[in-house]
Design brief:
The protein has 310 residues and is mainly α. The chain has two domains: 83 residues; 181 residues, Intergrase catalytic core (hpI Integrase, Chain A). It is built from 13 helices and three strands, in the order αααααααβββαααααα. The protein has a three-stranded antiparallel β-sheet. The radius of gyration is 24 Å and the shape is globular. The N and C termini lie far apart (88 Å).
């Protein structure tokens, strides 16, 4: 085992993540390794190979292949973390400002939130296909339950509902979320839960509940991929050509509240964020329509201003 090799370092780190059952994070590091290997053409990557010039060329390579800046950031942050661990262990040379000029931030994209009319159509348009109906019901409930993430919806348990209140801990942050279930939503909930097998521990029929560990993680990813494909089919059927994913629901919920002037602190609590900074990433931009309206009103208030007489 060569301790001066990046591949060895990252594979050891991935193994430690899997031992801690952090399968999603482990996959993210594995994806970064696979990408960096394809770029370098090397099976073994000595830490001395990772220079500022190599990182800049890798960044350009990723962008040329059509990767988003957020994907670039994720891969670079994974490489930086492993490199820094190696520096601390004296397995890699310390290079001042090695990652300076490399994009490691978060780029918010305005197009993730849907306008209210598109949301309404997705929730209320008549559909007859059983799979589309199931997807539509899930869409409604995710929006109704404070922009719930699909991972939380899929893992809801029957005992999470007591006396008309839904209480659960977010899979990602561990934050406790509590939502009163409106009377009009009970029918949606019952309809989606109708297909859940009797022995399943889950409220809704997305996961079998029989797998554990990494197998359970893989099962969830398969289910998530299927749900997003069905969302795409549903949106196209209704006539919405904007890309719609499970994340779109959460982002649209937050943006709708923002444009209704709900305080960011309340939006953050509803979403179950541990930090308002995370919520601010969701809410970086108002819609173009909202910005245009405010801009027009501002101009008219000055251009048509009439001074008071007397």
């Amino acid at each position: 085992m060569n301790k001066h090799d990046f591949v060895v370092g990252i594979l050891m780190y991935i193994a430690s993540l899997r031992e801690k059952k952090q399968y999603s994070t482990a996959k993210s590091y594995q994806d970064a390794l696979n990408s960096f290997r394809r770029f370098s053409g090397l099976e073994e990557i000595p830490y001395v190979y990772i220079t500022k010039d190599v990182l800049l060329r890798y960044q350009s390579w990723l962008l040329a292949k059509g990767c988003s800046r957020n994907t670039v950031s994720t891969y670079m942050r994974r490489i930086r973390h492993i490199y820094n661990l190696a520096v601390e262990a004296d397995d890699a040379p310390y290079v001042p400002h090695l990652f300076k000029g490399i994009f490691t931030g978060v780029e918010s994209k305005r197009k993730k939130a849907l306008p209210s009319e598109s949301l309404r159509l997705l929730m209320t348009s008549p559909v007859t296909d059983p799979q589309q109906k199931k997807t539509q019901l899930a869409f409604c409930l995710m929006f109704l339950f404070c922009g719930m993430a699909f991972v939380d919806l899929a893992h809801l348990r029957k005992e999470d509902i007591k006396e008309g209140v839904l209480s659960y801990y977010r899979q990602k942050s561990g934050s406790l979320i509590q939502v009163e279930i409106p009377v009009e939503a009970q029918g949606l909930l019952n309809e989606l839960a109708a297909d859940t097998t009797e022995g399943s521990p889950y409220l809704f029929p997305f996961l079998e509940g029989m797998k554990t560990g990494e197998d359970a993680y893989k099962e969830y990813n398969t289910v998530l991929g299927g749900f997003n494909r069905r969302l795409k089919t549903l949106s196209e059927f209704i006539g919405i050509h904007t890309r719609v994913t499970s994340y779109t629901i959460r982002h649209s919920f937050a943006t709708t509240l923002k444009e209704q002037n709900v305080p960011i602190e309340m939006i953050s609590e509803l979403l179950g964020h541990k930090s308002i900074k995370t919520t601010q990433i969701y809410l970086k931009s108002f819609s173009l329509e909202k910005l245009s309206t405010v801009n027009k009103l501002c101009f008219e208030s000055v251009y048509n201003y009439t001074p008071k007489v007397g």
